[in-house]
Amino acid sequence: MPTTPDPVQSPFIRDDDEGLFSRDINGQLVRLDAPTEADYNKTVSMQIDGQPVSVPLAEPLKDENGNIVLDIEGRTTPRYTTIYDAAVKLYVKQPGDEAHIPIPTICHQPHMRPVAVCRLCVVQIYGQKRGQRAAERKLLPACQHQVKDGMEVFTMNDGGADGARVRQAVKVVTELLAADHLKPAPLPALAKELEPYNELGQITARCGASPARFQIDAFSKPAPAAAPGAGRRSLDESSPVFLVDHSACILCDRCVRACDEVMENHVIGRTGKGATAGIGFDLNEPMGESSCVQCGECMVSCPTTAITFKPVAQVTISSKVRSAEILAASELTADPIFAGVPPKFLLWQQGLVVRRRVKAGEAVCKQGDAGNTAFFIKSGRLEVSVYPSVPPVKGVFGRLRKVERGEPAMRIELTPEDVVVGEMSCLSGTPRTADVTALAESEVWEVRRNVLDRLMRLPSQRSRFEKQYRERALDLALQGSDLFKEIPGGEFRQIVDYLRERLNFVRVSAGQTLFRQGDPVHDLYLVRLGYVRVGVRLFEGEARVLSQGPGTILGEIGMLGFTSRDIGKTIDEADLAVKEALERTDGDPALALPAGFRSATCSALGSVELGRLARPDFLHLVREFPLLRRRLVEQSLARLGGVEQRNPMLTEFVSQGLYEGRSLLVLDLDLCTRCDECTKGCVQQHGSASHGVPITRLLRDGMRFDKFVVATACRSCIDAHCMVGCPVDAIHRGKHLQIVIEDHCIGCGLCASNCPYGSIFMMPNHHVKPGSPAAIAQPKAATCDLCDSEGDRSSPKPRCVSACPHDAAHRMTGDELLQLVTSGFQDR
Questions:
Q1: I want to staple 604 with a disulfide (CB 3.0 to 4.6 A). Which of 151, 164, 608, 625 is the partner?
Q2: Overall pTM surpassing 0.85 (yes/no)
């Protein structure tokens, strides 16, 4: 009687063993040690379908965006390299080659933690046992199984018996899944459009599977229906944005990991048992009644039609851009730039990418404009011109005067090889830092923030953007920082070249602490993207809380060794002391100028990217460039003086967030008669165009600051909290940097919950739905747009101010309000 070869016990991990253990050659359990950074340098040689490939034993852990996770010290977290990782290295040479990987996956995505629940990525593995080649007795998942030296892997593409075994296993699993869950989208209007992107359908066709032979009614009765509210449900239409068809769910957990790990909303989880198992929202509530924020990450991640979108609202193009046309999702998916972006996302966000054809001399964007979009250069040539900042001309007649900007401080020519321009302003929500003009007839693709953010998740695209940032955008970022403004061109170029080689970039997640007050100082940070919370503690509480955005320098006080004892010094005295200390040694300047301690606690307000400069490099920089050193000294002394200020009025000013306001609606209580004409004027101005019925965008109520009330109306904050995370990019900056909400708002309410001042109102949308005689009451956001959402006026003229009969209502910045109040105190 023939004997079956013994299964390989090593170097494989048996699938029925605990995760921390493996078996030695005698079958005994041994502990499987965690990988270390030293394993990055250990090379594993193996074969996949007869093709040799070498990979490191371990790789750095990556985040949900596919980027290497670094702590604030720049350290990585090792993880063992998997068979799927090796296949990616072998078959993926450029974006778009992912389709060539011979290992199908449906529960695994590169940006997600592998769970190996679908078993479609199984492979046949051979290894060495007692010096002889032997096969693993079971097919094992490639997305989770670690590589070993000398391993041979056979996928479904292999032409021999091993490939046939893998193909048969994958085919049967696919047929079982497709028999129950392969179905069209619930909405007939989307069924045909979504069919080509159903991953379960794609794998079914790829494997030549026949789901019909496993139809349940062919050999037994259907499973009994689940009790109401338990496990799987039928079609869930409760959400205003999405449809959930539980019968199409294959329990791959991609939506769960997208919600928990990628977006960190923690709304979706598993519920039920056995045949009634399914996904649930919160405590198994319908999607529309749960705490779901309608971000869409679960829908984009779903590989079937279990979660699809409703065509709630369509994106429209501004009539001012006559050459623009919406790009169809089919054209985007065929472009190499968008390779790797989920097609369902492009279908859902259709209209957020437009094609623009610009003639020679035509402006693509202007310096100072709201930066809501980025531009991919498809053909032609563009010129980027950065002009010195010009102080605004005050007075009524001053606005009519043409301001001469002079010669640009910097010019750069861009071609399609540069790929993109304007991405910094788009991602950070800050004004444009340069003019972009066509030098020849050109074609650009204008993309909104949501699409650009999705592209930035792709490691291949992100590395390209990172390289361009070092070569080009670093110049623009430094130009936008007050610290580097108006530095002579030659000296500025030397500073940029010095920093380009020495800045290391790190990414930190929301809430992560960069450093704490009192910690020793080792690095200087330049905020590239995002906003940082700066908190200064005095005694038992925080004396000041500020937010710092792109272009901000953090940590210069401790880098120069300043303490509270230096507050009384003049700028000349402090600068001279630093200069003499740096000149006392020809070697390491850190020996002559000891490091200080952090004067504040800084943490990330959302995802933040920082440029980090080590202290020795920083001290060499300030020693070589006296003008930059003096500015750093001046900035450090000003910040130290601000820390020591304990003005109750200033504390109240900061606690109310008034420092963020670009356009506060301030009511003078000495003049206001509570006639409410400001609110009535707002209602009359906007009418029923946005919501079908007249609504107000302000409340004549708010917190009091001295003799003024700051009404509840949009402040046009410097740091636009409301713009963070909008799933359809329906909220953006207008011409005057005010907040504008577009008609394709889906009413998820995320902007309203993000606004810390209650200035965004969720109002019922009473517009009649096309094809329906009844009005719908789906929520839609509304906020003050300074009565100029289209940007038709040279300067904003809000009706709330002009309607006031007593000159009690005014629009002003936070700094102007503070100056008005403090000057009033001095007059008293």
A1: 608
A2: no
